[in-house]
Write a structure and sequence with these properties.
With about 210 residues, the chain is of the alpha/beta class. The chain has helices at about 1-5, 40-50, 65-70, 90-100, 115-120, 135-140, 185-195, 205-210, and strands spanning about 20-25, 50-55, 85, 105, 125, 175. About 25% of the residues lie in helices and about 10% in strands. It is globular, with a radius of gyration of 17 Å. The model is unreliable at about 130-150 (pLDDT under 50).
Length: about 210
């Protein structure tokens, strides 16, 4: 991954598009129970922050979804209000678009995606969702695993977190930011505002540092 990342030139922060990149390759990810955001949040945030929320996702009504049971999914793309879908991208296109963004935002699914590592080595910080959904409770209970959420009385105890990218939960801002302590939209917007100003030092060395 380090070799692949080094092939993509790093774009200075001041020269990147004023946008965040949504970590989702399927529309289903913002509809299932693991979604970390209200679907209306992206257009609202785009308006309040004056920047686009962009991604490249596929609209497949049958990918981990049954429209006959759950109803048809409406695409969240709303270009007029700053939510932009570039469609499915190949790896080269994805790396180019990701590196031209100011922050990568996880939506809660898929787990363990390599994309946050791609982002960090391009100097793009990652907002790593932490979830307490009942789906996670059920999954971990039936799998015989420790039940993880976050502890309300000790929210910064990382042993109690269940995040989209668990290994990156061990790392600190500004490269990785967990929004578990952001219960209001105002605080979420503040976190994004801070992240889009982050200049990670020696981006191509980020993967080595995270080992």
């Amino acid at each position: 991954m380090e070799k692949q990342c080094s092939l993509q030139p790093i774009i200075p922060l001041a020269e990147r598009q004023h946008r965040v990149w949504l970590l989702m390759k399927e529309l289903t990810y913002v509809y299932d129970v693991r979604s970390a955001w209200n679907r209306s949040f992206f257009a609202m945030a785009a308006h309040d922050l004056g920047m686009n929320f962009t991604g490249g996702w596929n609209v497949d009504q049958h990918y981990q979804w049954d429209p006959n049971v759950n109803g048809e999914m409406a695409d969240i793309e709303d270009r007029e209000h700053g939510v932009v879908n570039l469609g499915r991208l190949n790896q080269t296109e994805f790396m180019r678009e990701l590196s031209d963004s100011k922050v990568l935002i996880g939506v809660g699914n898929p787990w363990w995606s390599p994309s946050p590592y791609n982002a960090l080595c391009q100097g793009v910080p990652f907002l790593n969702p932490v979830s307490t959904s009942m789906w996670l409770y059920y999954f971990k209970l039936t799998a015989g695993m420790q039940i993880l959420s976050w502890h309300d009385d000790d929210p910064w105890n990382r042993k109690g977190w269940s995040s989209q990218h668990p290994s990156l939960s061990l790392h600190d801002p500004p490269s990785v930011f967990p929004p578990c302590l952001l219960p209001t939209q105002e605080l979420k917007l503040t976190a994004i505002t801070r992240l889009i100003q982050v200049r990670l030092q020696c981006p191509h060395r980020q993967l080595r540092r995270l080992r």
